[in-house]
Amino acid sequence: xxxxxxxxxxxxxxxxxxxxxxxxxxxxxxxxxxxxxxxxxxxxxxxxxxxxxxxxxxxxxxxxxxxxxxxxxxxxxxxxxxxxxxxxxxxxxxxxxxxxxxxxxxxxxxxxxxxxxxxxxxxxxxxxxxxxxxxxxxxxxxxxxxxxxxxxxxxxxxxxxxxxxxxxxxxxxxxxxxxxxxxxxxxxxxxxxxxxxxxxxxxxxxxxxxxxxxxxxxxxxxxxxxxxxxxxxxxxxxxxxxxxxxxxxxxxxxxxxxxxxxxxxxxxxxxxxxxxxxxxxxxxxxxxxxxxxxxxxxxxxx
Length: 302
Prior knowledge:
The chain is mostly beta strands. Helix content is 0%, strand content 24%.
């Protein structure tokens, strides 16, 4: 059993078949957290909250209520691609069709992909975008939840919140817009950190939706005590909040994603190639590498 409770096989060899007397190549297990970038909030008339990026994790919990993923069996002297997904841009505009942009996917070990969050107005993604009218979009299975529904309030209120990695976006109702769905707390770094909160829906004279726990942005408020939509927090994959009107039309940007790796220090050392921004820390017997921007390759040595 690993320190997190899932089954691991540290140092397990990969079999080599068909060669008499062959020995198998040494490998080691590496835990990961891959959080996609959050979607951008929509502008006036499409002012629901955006969805968070999807989450895939081998530690504590994974997105969408899915089963915890298995540690990656990692080979030495092999290049693996890491990509940290950018958050989607919120939209500024006073007309129709202002939806925001989807978040970008994050990738670990070349093919473990967490999808970017859906922009507002019911766009599918790692977590689904909320809707200003009708049902919110669904999220990706084992990565995130759906966005909340809207009641046709447009820039007024009743806009749904964006989906989070840990919960569905809250539905809008009457003059009250929905909050973003909550994210998920994980402890891959040794400290509990929450990522993947959905963005809140905007309001005009009603009640705006707040961002979900885990970096989601608040929706804008267009009348009375006015406020702009707030951007999602960087490196949480949170969804952006929706915009309102009368000078508060802009939806906010989604938060960039993050990739975190954790492995036994006694098993490997890591080389990080150009194009990636990262920090390396110790967590007891483990090395933790947190990637916060860029794309590039990594490799490991004994």
